[in-house]
Protein backbone atom coordinates (compact mmCIF):
# COMPACT_ATOMS: atom_id res chain seq x y z
CA UNK A 1 0.00 0.00 0.00
CA UNK A 2 1.30 3.47 -0.88
CA UNK A 3 1.23 5.94 1.99
CA UNK A 4 1.20 9.69 1.54
CA UNK A 5 2.73 12.14 3.96
CA UNK A 6 1.62 15.84 3.92
CA UNK A 7 4.34 18.38 3.28
CA UNK A 8 4.33 21.86 4.70
CA UNK A 9 3.06 23.38 1.42
CA UNK A 10 -0.02 21.19 1.36
CA UNK A 11 1.11 18.51 -1.17
CA UNK A 12 1.72 14.84 -0.35
CA UNK A 13 4.83 12.60 -0.63
CA UNK A 14 4.20 8.96 -1.73
CA UNK A 15 6.17 6.12 -0.09
CA UNK A 16 6.22 2.50 1.12
CA UNK A 17 6.33 1.21 4.64
CA UNK A 18 9.38 -0.73 5.82
CA UNK A 19 7.33 -3.92 6.00
CA UNK A 20 6.26 -3.56 2.37
CA UNK A 21 9.86 -3.04 1.28
CA UNK A 22 10.98 -6.13 3.19
CA UNK A 23 8.17 -8.21 1.72
CA UNK A 24 9.10 -7.08 -1.79
CA UNK A 25 12.77 -7.94 -1.22
CA UNK A 26 11.76 -11.35 0.17
CA UNK A 27 9.58 -12.08 -2.87
CA UNK A 28 12.40 -11.11 -5.23
CA UNK A 29 14.80 -13.31 -3.27
CA UNK A 30 12.38 -16.23 -3.40
CA UNK A 31 11.94 -15.86 -7.15
CA UNK A 32 15.71 -15.71 -7.61
CA UNK A 33 16.14 -18.82 -5.47
CA UNK A 34 13.67 -20.63 -7.69
CA UNK A 35 14.91 -19.32 -11.02
CA UNK A 36 18.70 -19.51 -10.60
CA UNK A 37 18.82 -23.31 -10.12
CA UNK A 38 16.48 -23.70 -13.08
CA UNK A 39 18.73 -21.54 -15.25
CA UNK A 40 21.81 -23.43 -14.05
CA UNK A 41 20.12 -26.76 -14.78
CA UNK A 42 19.19 -25.58 -18.27
CA UNK A 43 22.77 -24.49 -18.94
CA UNK A 44 24.14 -27.80 -17.68
CA UNK A 45 21.67 -29.67 -19.88
CA UNK A 46 22.99 -27.70 -22.85
CA UNK A 47 26.60 -28.43 -21.88
CA UNK A 48 25.80 -32.09 -21.34
CA UNK A 49 24.20 -32.31 -24.79
CA UNK A 50 27.30 -30.72 -26.34
CA UNK A 51 29.56 -33.21 -24.53
CA UNK A 52 27.52 -36.06 -25.98
CA UNK A 53 27.64 -34.47 -29.42
CA UNK A 54 31.45 -34.31 -29.25
CA UNK A 55 31.50 -38.07 -28.67
CA UNK A 56 29.12 -38.61 -31.59
CA UNK A 57 31.51 -36.64 -33.81
CA UNK A 58 34.33 -38.93 -32.67
CA UNK A 59 32.13 -41.92 -33.46
CA UNK A 60 31.47 -40.62 -36.98
CA UNK A 61 35.20 -40.10 -37.45
CA UNK A 62 35.92 -43.69 -36.36
CA UNK A 63 33.29 -44.97 -38.82
CA UNK A 64 34.74 -42.82 -41.60
CA UNK A 65 38.27 -44.09 -40.91
CA UNK A 66 37.09 -47.71 -40.74
CA UNK A 67 35.17 -47.42 -44.01
CA UNK A 68 38.34 -46.32 -45.79
CA UNK A 69 40.91 -48.50 -44.03
CA UNK A 70 38.65 -51.48 -43.19
CA UNK A 71 40.21 -51.32 -39.73
CA UNK A 72 39.78 -49.29 -36.56
CA UNK A 73 42.38 -46.58 -35.92
CA UNK A 74 45.04 -47.53 -33.39
CA UNK A 75 47.66 -45.67 -31.44
CA UNK A 76 51.29 -46.38 -32.21
CA UNK A 77 54.75 -44.87 -31.70
CA UNK A 78 53.21 -42.75 -28.99
CA UNK A 79 50.67 -41.10 -31.31
CA UNK A 80 47.09 -41.20 -30.08
CA UNK A 81 43.98 -42.40 -31.88
CA UNK A 82 42.89 -38.76 -31.99
CA UNK A 83 45.77 -37.98 -34.36
CA UNK A 84 44.52 -40.58 -36.84
CA UNK A 85 41.01 -39.13 -36.74
CA UNK A 86 41.94 -35.49 -37.35
CA UNK A 87 41.12 -35.45 -41.10
CA UNK A 88 37.65 -36.91 -40.47
CA UNK A 89 37.12 -34.31 -37.74
CA UNK A 90 37.84 -31.51 -40.23
CA UNK A 91 41.25 -30.82 -38.69
CA UNK A 92 43.35 -31.53 -41.78
CA UNK A 93 45.84 -28.67 -41.11
CA UNK A 94 46.60 -30.14 -37.67
CA UNK A 95 47.09 -33.58 -39.22
CA UNK A 96 49.38 -32.19 -41.94
CA UNK A 97 51.53 -30.52 -39.27
CA UNK A 98 52.37 -33.85 -37.59
CA UNK A 99 55.64 -35.63 -38.31
CA UNK A 100 54.67 -39.27 -37.80
CA UNK A 101 58.23 -40.40 -38.56
CA UNK A 102 59.44 -39.18 -35.16
CA UNK A 103 58.05 -41.33 -32.35
CA UNK A 104 56.34 -39.55 -29.48
CA UNK A 105 58.13 -41.83 -27.02
CA UNK A 106 61.05 -39.41 -26.71
CA UNK A 107 61.81 -35.67 -26.52
CA UNK A 108 62.64 -35.38 -30.24
CA UNK A 109 59.09 -36.27 -31.21
CA UNK A 110 57.59 -33.82 -28.73
CA UNK A 111 59.91 -31.06 -29.89
CA UNK A 112 59.20 -31.62 -33.59
CA UNK A 113 55.45 -31.87 -33.05
CA UNK A 114 55.13 -29.27 -30.34
CA UNK A 115 52.79 -26.95 -32.23
CA UNK A 116 50.27 -29.67 -33.02
CA UNK A 117 50.63 -31.41 -29.65
CA UNK A 118 49.96 -28.22 -27.73
CA UNK A 119 46.87 -27.27 -29.75
CA UNK A 120 43.72 -26.91 -27.72
CA UNK A 121 40.88 -28.44 -29.74
CA UNK A 122 37.52 -27.43 -28.33
CA UNK A 123 35.72 -30.51 -29.63
CA UNK A 124 38.01 -32.58 -27.39
CA UNK A 125 36.90 -30.60 -24.32
CA UNK A 126 33.60 -31.07 -22.51
CA UNK A 127 32.25 -27.61 -21.56
CA UNK A 128 31.01 -29.02 -18.24
CA UNK A 129 34.62 -29.35 -17.09
CA UNK A 130 35.20 -26.75 -14.37
CA UNK A 131 38.96 -27.29 -14.34
CA UNK A 132 41.59 -29.02 -16.39
CA UNK A 133 45.19 -30.00 -16.18
CA UNK A 134 47.45 -27.48 -14.55
CA UNK A 135 51.04 -27.47 -13.45
CA UNK A 136 53.58 -30.21 -13.94
CA UNK A 137 55.35 -31.13 -17.18
CA UNK A 138 52.13 -31.35 -19.22
CA UNK A 139 50.60 -27.98 -18.32
CA UNK A 140 51.00 -26.53 -21.81
CA UNK A 141 49.77 -29.54 -23.77
CA UNK A 142 46.36 -29.86 -25.39
CA UNK A 143 44.10 -31.64 -22.88
CA UNK A 144 41.17 -33.96 -23.58
CA UNK A 145 37.94 -34.73 -21.74
CA UNK A 146 37.56 -37.96 -23.71
CA UNK A 147 39.54 -41.18 -23.79
CA UNK A 148 39.48 -44.42 -25.78
CA UNK A 149 38.65 -47.81 -24.29
CA UNK A 150 41.75 -50.01 -23.92
CA UNK A 151 39.87 -52.92 -22.35
CA UNK A 152 39.35 -54.52 -18.96
CA UNK A 153 41.46 -56.64 -16.60
CA UNK A 154 45.04 -56.77 -15.39
CA UNK A 155 47.41 -58.07 -18.05
CA UNK A 156 50.77 -59.06 -16.60
CA UNK A 157 52.30 -59.46 -20.06
CA UNK A 158 51.72 -55.92 -21.27
CA UNK A 159 48.87 -53.66 -22.35
CA UNK A 160 45.29 -54.88 -22.32
CA UNK A 161 44.31 -56.67 -25.51
CA UNK A 162 40.55 -57.19 -25.10
CA UNK A 163 39.39 -53.62 -25.72
CA UNK A 164 38.85 -52.04 -29.13
CA UNK A 165 41.75 -49.59 -28.77
CA UNK A 166 45.17 -50.54 -27.49
CA UNK A 167 48.61 -50.48 -29.12
CA UNK A 168 49.58 -51.97 -32.47
CA UNK A 169 52.92 -53.01 -30.97
CA UNK A 170 51.13 -55.65 -28.91
CA UNK A 171 48.35 -57.00 -31.11
CA UNK A 172 46.81 -56.94 -34.55
CA UNK A 173 44.52 -54.13 -35.60
CA UNK A 174 40.80 -54.69 -35.40
CA UNK A 175 37.65 -54.25 -37.43
CA UNK A 176 33.95 -54.79 -36.80
CA UNK A 177 34.43 -58.48 -37.59
CA UNK A 178 36.58 -58.92 -34.46
CA UNK A 179 33.91 -57.50 -32.13
CA UNK A 180 32.09 -60.72 -31.32
CA UNK A 181 30.09 -59.11 -28.51
CA UNK A 182 28.55 -56.73 -31.03
CA UNK A 183 29.38 -53.10 -31.74
CA UNK A 184 26.26 -51.94 -29.88
CA UNK A 185 27.51 -53.72 -26.73
CA UNK A 186 31.10 -52.46 -26.79
CA UNK A 187 32.22 -49.00 -25.65
CA UNK A 188 34.64 -47.18 -27.94
CA UNK A 189 35.31 -44.05 -25.87
CA UNK A 190 34.01 -42.21 -22.84
CA UNK A 191 34.31 -39.01 -20.87
CA UNK A 192 36.76 -38.73 -18.03
CA UNK A 193 37.63 -36.01 -15.56
CA UNK A 194 40.81 -34.17 -16.34
CA UNK A 195 43.09 -33.46 -13.44
CA UNK A 196 46.35 -31.95 -12.28
CA UNK A 197 49.49 -33.80 -11.15
CA UNK A 198 49.33 -34.51 -7.42
CA UNK A 199 45.61 -33.78 -7.17
CA UNK A 200 43.94 -35.15 -4.04
CA UNK A 201 40.49 -35.09 -5.66
CA UNK A 202 39.37 -38.76 -5.82
CA UNK A 203 37.82 -38.16 -9.24
CA UNK A 204 40.67 -36.13 -10.77
CA UNK A 205 43.87 -37.39 -9.20
CA UNK A 206 46.01 -40.43 -9.96
CA UNK A 207 46.81 -42.47 -6.87
CA UNK A 208 49.60 -44.94 -6.24
CA UNK A 209 49.76 -47.92 -3.89
CA UNK A 210 51.89 -47.75 -0.77
CA UNK A 211 51.23 -51.33 0.31
CA UNK A 212 54.60 -52.52 -0.92
CA UNK A 213 53.47 -54.72 -3.81
CA UNK A 214 53.94 -53.78 -7.42
CA UNK A 215 51.47 -56.23 -8.94
CA UNK A 216 48.14 -56.72 -7.17
CA UNK A 217 47.85 -60.08 -5.37
CA UNK A 218 44.37 -60.44 -6.85
CA UNK A 219 42.35 -58.56 -9.43
CA UNK A 220 39.30 -58.15 -7.20
CA UNK A 221 41.39 -56.98 -4.24
CA UNK A 222 43.12 -54.36 -6.34
CA UNK A 223 39.76 -52.95 -7.46
CA UNK A 224 38.32 -53.01 -3.94
CA UNK A 225 41.39 -51.22 -2.59
CA UNK A 226 41.24 -48.58 -5.32
CA UNK A 227 37.50 -48.00 -4.92
CA UNK A 228 38.02 -46.84 -1.34
CA UNK A 229 41.58 -45.53 -1.91
CA UNK A 230 42.70 -47.97 0.78
CA UNK A 231 46.45 -47.71 0.98
CA UNK A 232 46.82 -45.22 -1.86
CA UNK A 233 48.36 -41.74 -1.96
CA UNK A 234 48.31 -39.04 -4.70
CA UNK A 235 50.94 -39.49 -7.39
CA UNK A 236 52.82 -36.20 -7.90
CA UNK A 237 53.73 -36.51 -11.58
CA UNK A 238 50.70 -38.09 -13.19
CA UNK A 239 47.36 -36.78 -14.37
CA UNK A 240 44.40 -37.69 -16.57
CA UNK A 241 43.61 -36.16 -19.93
CA UNK A 242 46.97 -34.44 -20.08
CA UNK A 243 47.35 -34.78 -23.86
CA UNK A 244 44.99 -35.69 -26.69
CA UNK A 245 48.08 -36.08 -28.85
CA UNK A 246 49.78 -38.87 -26.88
CA UNK A 247 48.67 -42.49 -26.68
CA UNK A 248 48.32 -44.48 -23.49
CA UNK A 249 47.01 -44.26 -19.91
CA UNK A 250 46.95 -40.75 -18.50
CA UNK A 251 46.83 -39.17 -21.93
CA UNK A 252 44.06 -40.57 -24.09
CA UNK A 253 43.15 -44.14 -23.07
CA UNK A 254 41.27 -45.51 -20.07
CA UNK A 255 40.09 -48.96 -18.98
CA UNK A 256 36.91 -50.59 -17.68
CA UNK A 257 38.25 -51.97 -14.42
CA UNK A 258 36.11 -49.64 -12.28
CA UNK A 259 32.76 -47.95 -13.08
CA UNK A 260 32.40 -44.25 -13.99
CA UNK A 261 33.46 -41.67 -11.40
CA UNK A 262 35.67 -44.18 -9.57
CA UNK A 263 39.23 -43.28 -8.52
CA UNK A 264 42.21 -43.90 -10.79
CA UNK A 265 44.96 -46.04 -9.26
CA UNK A 266 48.36 -47.46 -10.13
CA UNK A 267 50.53 -49.90 -8.23
CA UNK A 268 53.89 -48.61 -7.09
CA UNK A 269 56.67 -49.61 -9.44
CA UNK A 270 54.33 -51.39 -11.85
CA UNK A 271 53.49 -50.67 -15.45
CA UNK A 272 50.35 -48.54 -15.95
CA UNK A 273 48.56 -51.60 -17.32
CA UNK A 274 48.26 -52.99 -13.77
CA UNK A 275 45.85 -50.28 -12.82
CA UNK A 276 42.42 -48.69 -12.98
CA UNK A 277 42.22 -45.63 -15.22
CA UNK A 278 38.60 -44.67 -14.71
CA UNK A 279 36.04 -42.85 -16.82
CA UNK A 280 33.93 -40.08 -15.28
CA UNK A 281 32.56 -36.59 -15.78
CA UNK A 282 31.28 -33.40 -14.17
CA UNK A 283 27.71 -34.46 -14.92
CA UNK A 284 25.79 -35.71 -11.90
CA UNK A 285 25.94 -39.48 -11.30
CA UNK A 286 27.65 -40.75 -14.43
CA UNK A 287 29.18 -40.04 -17.83
CA UNK A 288 28.52 -40.35 -21.55
CA UNK A 289 29.93 -43.33 -23.43
CA UNK A 290 30.33 -43.79 -27.17
CA UNK A 291 29.71 -47.28 -28.54
CA UNK A 292 31.35 -48.79 -31.60
CA UNK A 293 28.10 -48.63 -33.57
CA UNK A 294 28.14 -44.83 -33.12
CA UNK A 295 25.39 -44.36 -30.53
CA UNK A 296 26.00 -42.67 -27.20
CA UNK A 297 24.49 -43.51 -23.84
CA UNK A 298 24.67 -41.97 -20.38
CA UNK A 299 26.09 -44.63 -18.06
CA UNK A 300 25.29 -44.21 -14.38
CA UNK A 301 28.08 -44.48 -11.84
CA UNK A 302 25.96 -47.11 -10.08
CA UNK A 303 26.30 -49.51 -13.02
CA UNK A 304 27.33 -52.96 -11.70
CA UNK A 305 31.05 -53.59 -12.01
CA UNK A 306 30.47 -56.76 -14.05
CA UNK A 307 28.27 -54.87 -16.52
CA UNK A 308 30.94 -52.19 -16.99
CA UNK A 309 33.53 -54.94 -17.48
CA UNK A 310 31.34 -56.54 -20.16
CA UNK A 311 30.98 -53.23 -22.01
CA UNK A 312 34.77 -52.86 -22.07
CA UNK A 313 35.67 -56.05 -23.92
CA UNK A 314 35.15 -56.96 -27.57
CA UNK A 315 34.77 -60.71 -27.16
CA UNK A 316 33.81 -61.58 -23.60
CA UNK A 317 30.73 -63.45 -24.71
CA UNK A 318 28.23 -60.93 -23.34
CA UNK A 319 25.35 -59.84 -25.55
CA UNK A 320 22.14 -57.94 -24.94
CA UNK A 321 23.61 -55.90 -22.07
CA UNK A 322 21.08 -53.60 -20.40
CA UNK A 323 22.02 -50.32 -18.75
CA UNK A 324 18.60 -49.45 -17.30
Describe the structure.
With 324 residues, the chain is α+β, with helices and mostly antiparallel strands. 27% of the residues lie in helices and 12% in strands. A five-stranded mixed β-sheet has the order 7-3-4-9-10, with helices on one face. A three-stranded mixed β-sheet has the order 6-5-8, with no helix packed on it. Pfam families: N_methyl, SBP_bac_10. Keywords: Membrane, Transmembrane, Transmembrane helix.
SSE arrangement:
Blueprint: E1 3-6, E2 12-15, H1 18-69, H2 81-85, H3 92-96, H4 107-112, H5 114-117, E3 146-149, E4 187-191, E5 206-209, H6 219-227, E6 232-234, E7 253-254, E8 264-266, E9 286-291, E10 296-300, H7 305-312
Parallel strand pairs: 3-7, 5-8
Antiparallel strand pairs: 1-2, 3-4, 4-9, 5-6, 9-10
What would you say about this model in short?
With 324 residues, the protein is of the alpha+beta class. The chain has 7 helices and 10 strands.
Taken as a percent bin, the fraction of beta residues is 5-15%
Total of DSSP H or I helical runs spanning 4+ residues = 7
Mean pLDDT: 82
- The first-to-last residue Cα distance is 56 Å
Pfam families: N_methyl, SBP_bac_10
Organism: Tautonia sociabilis
Domain DUF1559: 40-305
Protein name: DUF1559 domain-containing protein
